[in-house]
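I am still getting used to backbone structure tokens and would like to learn alongside you. To get us started, please write out a protein record for me. Start from the sequence, derive the backbone structure tokens from it, and show both lines together. Once you have written the record down, we can walk along the chain together:
***
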Amino acid sequence: MNMDEGIIKNIEHKEDEFGEILRQLEIFERVYPYYTNMIQDHIPSSSSKESSLKSTMHTEK
């Protein structure tokens, strides 16, 4: 293999790596909103903490 063939092989390998990164990024872009919503559902804002605390107190009576 001469030097040019080595460079071409290296470029092809880098293209494969880049393609894989793009595929992973596309998957991430698809699932990110789902996970963001899921995380936000589990992290109550300060106002919802108060309302959930009040509702808990009302149900305990």
